[in-house]
Amino acid sequence: MSFKYLEKLFQDFTELLDDNEEYNVIIEVDKEANKKSFTAHSTVLRYRSPYFKNENNIKIIIKPNISSQAFEIILKFIYVGIVNVENVDIKTIYELMIAAKELEFEELSKEIESHLIDTKATWIRTHFSFVYQSIFKINKFKDLENFCNNIIAKHPNLIFGSEDFVSLPESALVSILKRDDLKVDESDIWDYVIKWGIARIPDLPIELKKWSNDNFLILKITLQQCLPHIRYFHISNANIMDKVKPYRKILDEQLWDDLIQYLLLPDRPIKSIILPARSISISELPSRENKPFSTLINEEHALKVSSWIDFKSTPYFHETCLINFNSRDGFAPKTFWDMCHGYANTIAILKVEGTEILGGYNPLQWNNLSLRGKRHGRWMETNDSFIFHYNIQNSIHSRIKCTLLGNV
């Protein structure tokens, strides 16, 4: 027979965590404005993580890169093995994942990484540039990297259109360039790579005609990991001459000769390796203009509506197009019906001035025949439509509970 006193053990270690007398280690975390000190016991720290074995005999540990909120959660995990993030803001959860990885709590870090991917996709999407850049600086969160790269393949403007694109780590940019399914025209990829490289070289002349051979050489060295992943032979002839030729000095001589030969005599063999075209055709590419998503709802709202459409618990993005915009097309009912005629899977959104946003989803096809007095207009059934409501604090959506008839 065995006797277990786990509850008492838990209580004792909780009290040990709060002990302000017998500690022998002080841990200072966070930056100056939010700096906070925690006390701990070296024996407990060393047995809980190999990281602290390297800190043996050190009485003060200083970690300004770890937030006080994240470390407080980790310290409780060290002593009592519990992590509760139910009421913790998502940014702190993200910081907790990074701190756990740094302090070599691998299981905890992996658990939080999965939690963020499975349940916090909206936050990742709306803070995408921050997340993407930080995980590549650490380069230890492969699942999150893959998750983000899959998003970038479909929505490249999240990175290429961001204000801090030029500060993207080289490893992150190379990872993107390797994607066969990247939805960007190859000549635009060339433009982005050149922009990224130039931004990393101070004091370059603004006018290209004033560049020296040394300037081109520095750019070539800066981009040496990126240039091999550009699909040069899938750039149009016009863009080869207009975009690539001005920077031909950063390319290997053999590659440039092969490009010119391929442009003039495409049937002749060349020595350079021709990488396959990316799998998305130019006709399917999204606009490169970095316009606001909407004047009525933000991208986080759109993510939630997308998940409601497909009954998903995790928010994600649907490709959309604008059919009717009252401020542009007018408010006449006939205009609305004529422009929406024949479309299915549509979302209608309106804003009550100064208060709330209302909307609805119609999976059925709009039919303007009934509006014109035609007999072909008919009542149709659906269980998949819903209405929704947003205010500043929260969102509500309501599905129908029984089949409704609607004349669409």
From TrEMBL:
What Gene Ontology cellular-component terms does the record carry?
cytoplasm
How far does the signal peptide extend, from start to end residue? none
Domain TLDc, by residue range, is 295-408
Protein name, per record: BTB domain-containing protein
Species of origin reads Diversispora epigaea
Q: Where is the BTB domain?
A: 23-87
Matches recorded under InterPro entries: BACK, BTB/POZ_dom, BTB_POZ_domain_cont_9, SKP1/BTB/POZ_sf, TLDc_dom
